[in-house]
What does this fold into?
Amino acid sequence: MSDHGHVGEQHRSHRSGWLRAGVLGANDGLLSTASLLIGVAAGNASRSVLVLTAVAALVAGALSMAAGEYSSVASQRDAELADLQMERRSLAADPNEELLELAELYCQKGLTQALSMEVAQQLSAIDAFAAHSRDELGLNPDALTSPIQASLSSALSFSLGAAVPALTMGLASSALRIPGTVVLTLLALGVLGGIGARLGGASVTRAAVRLVLLGGGSMAVTTLVGRVLGTSV
Ligand SMILES: [Zn+2]
It folds into this structure.
């Protein structure tokens, strides 16, 4: 970094990837577990039933997040690897054709034909595969998303979110269980909404309010379901 005061603008959207996934996982863990537990508690369940439900909800949710994330990232990665391999084969089979293709890409971006060819030639001399991966496929072969890492971070973030309502339900007195869970869940949702918006460079307040309203609505619905079914089932 230069010491002439130029620090450059803070671009945020590029680093939102896995952090955003973590925030989404935590939101999901918070709200689905809180809504489930509030529904069960509103049906007058005992503490032991609530604790069992909380543990089951946390484990089931974390595993389901892990499985979903794994399969989605793994199939994306398979497609990316297939693209990269096809590119490597074309480069080996017909480097001239590939050079023209790369030059054409720079031409489309607005460089003159002569300059495009020069850029393509120089980049190909450095690392043709890297240039094609980046500029033609938009991929960095050394930094593909790992399905295992993605699934672990989803499962972990879901569990952290789910722990808030699970612990509140398990530890609070019977009178405080539902209100305590509602308040702490809404607070945590507001904070997460704000963090998510900040990571994406969007309005913090709007995102927090939106999540709190949606969370409140979801818990209201399951409270109603628990009340109705709790007396009739
Ligand atoms: Zn190519």
Observations:
- The radius of gyration is 25 Å.
- Helices lie at 16-42, 47-93, 95-108, 113-137, 147-171, 177-200, 204-232.
- The pocket of zinc ion is lined by residues 87, 90, 98, 101, 132, 136 (CB under 6 Å).
